[in-house]
Amino acid sequence: MKSKGLGRGLKALIPTTPEGAAEDAEIVELPLERITPSRYQARQDFDEDSIRELASSIKEHGVMQPVVVRPVGEDLYELVVGERRWRACRQAGLETIPAVIRRVDDRTSGEMMLVENIQREDLNPVEEALAYRRLIEEFHLTQEEVASRVGKSRSFIANSLRLLQLPEGVRSLLGQGKLSVGHGKVLLGIPDPAGQEMLAREIVEKGLTVRDAEKAVQRLLKEGGSRQKAGEKKKDVELAAVEDRLRERLGTKVRIRPGRRGGRIEIEYYGRDDLERLLEFFFGC
Question: Is 83 in the active site?
Answer without folding.
Answer: yes
